[in-house]
Specification:
- This is Fungal-type protein kinase domain-containing protein.
- The chain is 34% helix and 21% strand.
- The chain is built from 18 helices and 30 strands.
- The chain has a domain of 296 residues: Orthogonal Bundle (Transferase(Phosphotransferase), domain 1).
- The longest helix is centred in the first third of the chain and has 30 residues.
- It is an alpha+beta fold.
- The strands form eight sheets. Strands 1, 4, 7, 9, 10, 11, 12, 13 and 20 form a nine-stranded mixed sheet that branches. A seven-stranded antiparallel sheet has the order 14-15-16-17-18-22-19, with no helix packed on it.
- It is elongated.
Length: 720
């Protein structure tokens, strides 16, 4: 895994990550203005800050005084005094910098207008309206014109108005304090991006004693400039001016999304809403149905909104006869197909198969009974298979993140330890993308998604905002309160997966959030990671691991196979040359295949039965099997899938008054999956080895549905 933070020259950072609109001549003009204001002066042929150098030097004094006074005693009072003195000096330096910044704002430059100004105390506690939380900032560049002009003003600065955050620490403090300061910078950026969906990217400036660095945070990558001297007037003026005179769009605010405050008559309070402009249509958000982990920076940052169509940014009354819809806002790779494009490819294959349905002896229909074969043929022939998927009303490609700056490379230990896209970094490290199989526990596991993880070095490709509008307003499986409705939705999702199998496509991200219920029927959603099943790549797999950890097939999760036999080829010529050849794997059986999608169905039903049926004493089993941070997570899941006795024991912890068919059904599904892996072996291209399992699962789910009539088993989501 590669670290997320890239570092490179200051000039390259300014050129790539800002609008780079301030010329060297304009830098001269700004410095002349600062001279006239008495903020800089000429000193032995160079330009220097007035008083700032002395203030920086004074930061060293408290620690020296403390060291001289302690001797053999504890010196606790002197240490407190030193800490207070350091904090006061830091504040004084920031006040001086703020004066410089707000002087730059006043410089009249041709064709350039300032977009932000410096904010100091008492406004450096930023307020996040979405989470109603606050976080402290050492200082900030705040937009002069708020993106929410009608939002109620408060004593603290709304996070959405903060274009650039500052963090400052003296190098005389411990390394832990410096590293903590950098983590705070990451978390401040995470809060900024999470609090306002307009944000495409955000910025921070860190100052450690007399060293300044510039930071860029986006959905594709993070980039930090190399440090430069705070006493270098020209460098500092150029860096600050590049941000101050960037327009609002360049500072990371998406012009196709407007943020408003609207009075809710029922709740008797204001609500923050967004207006999305998708080509010539405008959609107003009503409520958020699902959103990503608020401490993630890099990644898809998926938000799902319930929306209604309005006339324009300024006329936000619903259009006549407008119906509520769903808008999915997600950041995809800039060269990735959108969900609509993928759905159209799948539907084209389905329509072709409907015109030329395969004969009964086709490998894809091996073991399929006559009734199911007739159902599949009719669904494909009349196009009603489309009812198993969401109806896409609109699809829009929007803003794009910047590509990595030329010459920037990944850096390690930038915050005191290696920063990776994984569970290795804890605590503050949650600000980084979670790209491994470790995500938040309990109910949060149901909505957190593992980002694709390649077996090759990471490429920092730009991401692009994609907005998809769905006609149906559905409920996710984990939102349902009746087991009967869950099983019915799973049956329809199973049929959708079998249709994908018939056209040789795999979903690769089957989860409780991607199987939806609409008017009592199920729909399979989120086709972003769906792909055609293809064995032609050969050798070691470059297939990318995707999915939600607690629903992910064990082979995909662990990158190991349940069937252990391997087929190797050896280069005999290497032996003749007296070399020691490396055996190469002829077939990688961990490629995501059709049964992996089916295994996710089993994990979903198992998770819901264990976690959403109240009155059960199975807390230990839940922690081991469905908390992906549990130390036994991998072992427990492997045992449940491959050890029949262990699975029986776990199922015994369920409520004893549940219909026995629930335990028997889950156990029988386990047997079907385990046998499928063992019997298939490495022949993952054998289509006939998959087809019988769809029928086995269908029979089990239909039997469970008959035993749990509507309202007989209520479901209650666990507390977060």
């Amino acid at each position: 895994m590669m670290p997320d933070i890239l570092e490179g020259p200051v000039a390259g950072w300014l050129q790539c990550y800002t609008s780079n609109c301030v010329s060297q001549g304009q830098v001269d003009q700004i410095i002349l203005y600062l001279k006239n204001e008495g903020l800089v002066l000429d000193h032995e042929g160079t330009v220097r800050w007035r008083d700032l150098a002395d203030q920086l030097t004074s930061l060293c004094q408290p620690k020296r005084a403390y060291q001289q006074s302690t001797g053999e005693g504890d010196g606790s009072e002197t240490q407190d005094t030193a800490n207070n003195s350091t904090a006061m000096n830091e504040l004084a330096i920031f006040e001086r910098l703020g004066t410089v910044i707000n002087a730059i704002v006043k410089v009249p430059l041709s064709n350039l207008l300032p977009s932000c100004r410096y904010e100091a105390e008492p406004h450096t506690t930023a307020y996040d309206e979405t989470s109603e939380s606050q976080h402290h900032l050492a200082g900030a560049l705040r937009l002069i014109v708020s993106p929410s002009p009608n939002a109620p003003r408060c004593s603290t600065a709304a996070t959405s108005d903060i274009a650039v955050s500052f963090a400052f620490k003296s190098e005389n403090e411990s390394d832990d304090a410096i590293n903590d300061n950098r983590w705070k910078t990451l978390c401040s950026a995470a809060h900024a991006l999470h609090s306002d969906c307009r944000r495409k990217h955000t910025y921070s400036i860190t100052i450690e004693n007399n060293r300044m660095s510039l930071w860029y945070f986006s959905r594709s990558h993070l980039a930090k400039s190399q440090e430069f001297d705070l006493l270098d007037v020209r460098a500092v003026v150029h860096a600050l001016s590049a941000l101050i005179f960037s327009n609002v769009e360049d500072l990371g605010y998406d012009a196709n999304i407007r943020r408003i405050s609207e009075w809710d008559e029922d709740a008797k309070e204001d609500h923050i809403r967004y207006i999305y402009r998708l080509d010539h249509r405008f959609l107003k958000t009503l409520k958020c149905r699902s959103e990503y982990d608020n401490l993630c920076i890099v990644g898809r940052a998926t938000r799902v909104w319930e929306v209604i169509e309005v006339t324009s940014f300024d006329d936000i009354a619903p259009l006549p006869h407008a119906q509520r819809m769903i808008l999915r806002d997600v950041w995809l790779g800039h060269d990735s197909e959108t969900e609509r494009e993928i759905q159209e490819m799948i539907f084209e294959r389905c329509d072709e198969l409907g015109r030329n349905f395969p004969p009964a002896n086709d490998a894809r229909l091996y073991g399929v009974d006559d009734a199911t074969r007739t159902l599949l043929r009719e669904r494909l022939r009349d196009g009603s298979y489309k009812q198993l998927f969401l109806t896409i009303e609109a699809d829009h490609r929007g803003a794009r993140s910047k590509p990595p700056a030329e010459g920037f490379t990944p850096v390690h230990a930038i915050c005191g330890e290696s920063v990776y896209c994984s569970q290795a970094a804890i605590g503050h490290a949650s600000c980084m993308e979670r790209a491994s199989t470790s995500v938040a526990p309990s109910a949060a596991d149901a909505s957190a998604t593992v980002k694709p993880q390649a077996s090759v070095p990471r490429e920092y490709k730009p991401r692009q905002r994609n907005c998809v509008v769905y006609r149906e307003v559905c409920s996710a499986l984990h939102e349902l309160d009746d087991l009967y409705d869950v099983v019915q939705a799973l049956l329809d999702a199973l049929l959708a997966l079998q249709i994908l199998f018939l056209v040789s496509w795999i979903h690769r991200d089957v989860s409780s959030g991607n199987i939806l219920s609409f008017e009592g029927r199920g729909k399979l959603s989120d086709l972003e990671y769906a792909k055609e099943f293809n064995l032609s790549i050969g050798g070691r797999s470059s297939d990318r691991r995707t999915g939600t950890p607690i629903f992910m097939a064990w082979e995909v999760h662990s990158r190991t196979t349940i069937f252990k036999e391997r087929i190797y080829v050896v280069d005999m010529a290497a032996y003749e040359a007296e070399e020691t050849p490396e055996p190469s794997l002829l077939v990688d059986s961990t490629l995501h295949n059709f049964q992996h999608d089916l295994e996710s169905i089993w994990w979903i039903l198992t998770w819901l039965v264990f976690t959403h049926i109240p009155g059960q004493d199975c807390a230990e089993a839940i922690v081991e099997m469905f908390h992906s941070r549990s130390s036994r997570f991998g072992i427990a899941r492997n045992d449940l899938l491959t050890d029949h006795k262990r699975c029986q024991e776990r199922l015994e912890s369920l409520r004893q008054d549940l219909p026995p068919v629930i335990r028997a059904g889950l156990l029988t599904m386990r047997v079907a999956l385990h046998n499928g892996y063992l019997e298939r072996g490495t022949s993952i291209g054998d289509m006939s080895s998959y087809s019988p399992i769809y029928g086995q699962f269908r029979n089990i789910l239909e039997t469970i549905a008959a035993a749990v009539p509507r309202s007989s088993i209520r479901l209650v989501p666990p507390r977060r």
